[in-house]
């Protein structure tokens, strides 16, 4: 499996997804209106992941996008741990609760898995 993982792809798309927490930290999601803004941004990110996987003809999009979701979860946890003391004066977020860490990683892994499944189906239908 190691040779099937495209780490450039995984890290790049996981970093791209950081637009969502960035928009939240800047208050843009709240000003647009919740929960519509969060859902809309998540859909756009998911469609972008799928499009890049399909158009880029990524090998094994299911595995690569699952790892993208988990990597995004790691990025989000680390960024929260770094920025919460700066922005809020104390450590907050998933890093303070082991169950929350697992939840973030599993949830984002499932997100990536679903996107990967869709990308795989599209690649198979288009014979890419």
UniProtKB/TrEMBL annotation:
Keywords assigned by UniProt, alphabetized: Membrane, Transmembrane, Transmembrane helix
Highest taxon of the lineage: Bacteria
Membrane-crossing residue ranges in chain numbering: 7-29, 35-55, 62-87, 99-122
Entry annotated with the keyword Transmembrane: yes
Name by which UniProt lists this protein: Phage holin family protein
Organism annotation: Paenibacillus allorhizosphaerae
Taxonomic classification: Bacteria, Bacillati, Bacillota, Bacilli, Bacillales
């Amino acid at each position: 499996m190691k040779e099937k993982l495209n780490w450039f792809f995984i890290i790049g798309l996981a970093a791209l997804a950081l637009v969502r927490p960035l928009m939240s930290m800047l208050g843009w999601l709240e000003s647009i209106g919740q929960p519509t803004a969060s859902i809309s941004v998540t859909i756009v990110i998911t469609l972008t992941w799928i499009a890049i996987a399909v158009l880029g003809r990524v090998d094994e999009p299911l595995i690569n996008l699952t790892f993208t979701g988990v990597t995004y979860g790691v990025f989000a946890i680390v960024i929260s741990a770094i920025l919460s003391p700066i922005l809020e004066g104390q450590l907050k977020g998933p890093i303070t609760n082991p169950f929350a860490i697992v939840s973030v990683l599993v949830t984002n892994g499932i997100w990536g898995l679903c996107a990967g499944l869709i990308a795989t189906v599209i690649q198979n239908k288009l014979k890419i």
